[in-house]
Structure formats: structure tokens, C-alpha cells
Amino acid sequence: MSPSEQSVPTPPAKAVPSLPVDADRQAFFEPWQAKAFALTVSLNQAGLFAWNEWTEVFAAALATTDAPMAGAWTEASARAYYLCWLEALERLIARHGMADAATLKTVAEAWKRAAEATPHGAPIRYEAHLPESGGPGRP
Amino acid sequence: MSHDHDHDHGAGSHLDDMTARVMALETVLAEKGLIDPAALDAIIDTYETKVGPRNGARVVARAWIDPAFAEWLARDGTAAIGSMGYTGRQGEHLHAVFNTDEVHHLVVCTLCSCYPWSVLGLPPVWYKSHAYRARAVSDPRGILAEFGLHLPKSTKLRVWDSTSEMRYLVVPRRPEGAEGWDMEALVPLVTRNSMIGTELALSPAALKAPPP
């Protein structure tokens, strides 16, 4: 737990961008980012994985994709950051047998079809992707 | 992952990939009873609006006026902060580091964005940026300069790297001019950034100044 002093070796020189010190008002740029965050917190609170396991997987995901986040914190870097978050979450969910990748992909595609079948302005209903004969009135 | 973009955008709505993936997670996990969709909004609301740096500011203000509490906070941050009702959601330990004339503390998470949510809310976006994560260790004085903080050369800088098990709260020095103030009066002087170490606590004069 000893702190690193200022004399820590400097990493290889590269262009160092300025910090987005003013852009600190916005936690999430898009709703899916907030939802991914909340899903992670919720599963952790329910005891489905430990937080240190989460940070391990998330840090590994971040380590592979620093490039889009090298500059100032923007909508694009937030997207890259939460995309790592989402990938880490999916990985952890698969690892613990909560849902496999194939199922998640199928359901995600179903949501997209449901959205496309829904007129603008109307709430998207997941069931909307089902075939006509799949409704509750089926004989 | 395949991207089918051959559909007609005419009447329907388009879901981007990320939104669809998150909705899929929510659907599948809710069907299995592993999450409660209604609870997700509460979590977002809690961390976006309810849990904020004010919790940490109360810890700091109390440490300023209560030497016994300050001593406890220095010795066992988790217990002292927990006694005020702020408990880490992830079971992490909280360690308070006190700024003095000789040493200034700065907190970072070099690997991701570990942060003491229970006392500071969600991290500011700059805390999550690659620039901050990389440079807080290699160039802390440069980082502080970008926040407008220029410390005397004689002040030693210590950088604390947060982990999933250990989070840090900087206790900034009590500003001059606030002698005799009670805890509630002191709380607004304690900014979020001062508890990460990128700023000092506000002076009473700065507090009275109109916001920029």
C-alpha cells in the first residue's frame, strides 16, 4: 500500500493530450451506458460476482483498447470506455453461466427487429418481433 | 458480430448495437430473476443524483473540527466513514490520506476507474480518461497545473493508485479564514476535486464569489 513517489519512471514519450478538466458534468453520454453500469452494480449487489473480479475483467478489456480513449474525454471516448465495460460485463455473465453469448446475440437481434417494426414515437415492445401467430390469442 | 443494415429505415426505429446488447442483457437476466429492471433505474438515480461528493465533504469537515474523529479516520478510514453511514457497495476498504504543508496527495486508478463511490458518487469523466490515468503517476505536477494548482517545490507529492479493494479519500487542509465555523458551514468548502487531490479546499472568499 505504499504510495508511488514522484520519481516513478516516465513511460515512453508520446503526445500527451490535455485533460478534459471542464467536461466533468456528465456521467453517461447515452442511456445504454447508464444501464450497463446499473446492471453491473445490481449483479454485484446480488452477490453474483465479486467486485474485484469485475475490475479485473474490466481492466483487461480497457487495456486492449486505450487508443480511442487517448485524447480528451468526449462522446467518442465515453463510448469506447463503456463498450469495454459492456464487453467485460458480457464476459463475466458468460463466465458465471448467467447467459451465453449466443442467447444474448439472438435476443439483441430480436430487440433490433422489434424496434424496426415499431413506428417512431411508439414504445418498443420486445414481443413485437414474434411471428403473427405467436400472440396470446393463438388457438 | 454481423451488422445487418439492409433493412428499411422508413417507419421503424433503429436500435444501435450497444443499446440492443444492453437490452438483451436486461431481458435475459430479468427472465432468470437475476435482476429487477425497476431497481436499475434506482441505481442510476442513486449514483447520478443522490450519492455525491457531499458525503465525503461531511467526512472531511468533521475531521477538521473533531480531532478524535480525525485520528480514527487516519487509523481506520473504513470504520470511521462507515460510522457516518457511508459504506462501500463493493466491500472495499477506504483509506483517508491527509494533506499537510509537507505532502500533497493525489488519487488515481491507473488500471480502470476504481473510485470511492460511497463518499464521492460517480467519478468525473476526467478521472476515467486515459490522459489522467497515465499521467497522474508519470507527471502529477503537470496534471495539477492543468487544474490550476501549483504547489511549492518543497511540497512532496504522493500518488495513490486505487484498486478494487482499496479506495482513497484525500482530506484537504482546512482553509484559513474559516475558524470557528461549524461542520455544516464547512461542508461547501470541500469540493469533490479537493478530495481526489486535484484542487485545494475552497477559501471562504472563493465560496462567496459568484460562480464563473
UniProtKB/TrEMBL annotation, chain B:
Keywords: Iron, Lyase, Metal-binding
Nitrile hydratase alpha/Thiocyanate hydrolase gamma domain segment(s): 17-198
Keyword Transmembrane recorded: no
Reactions listed under catalytic activity: an aliphatic primary amide = an aliphatic nitrile + H2O
Residues engaged in binding Fe(3+): 109, 112-114
E.C. designation(s): 4.2.1.84
Xref: Gene3D superfamilies: Nitrile hydratase alpha /Thiocyanate hydrolase gamma
Database matches in NCBIfam families: nitrile_alph
The family this protein is said to belong to: Belongs to the nitrile hydratase subunit alpha family.
Name of the protein this chain belongs to: nitrile hydratase
Gene symbol of the encoding locus: nthA
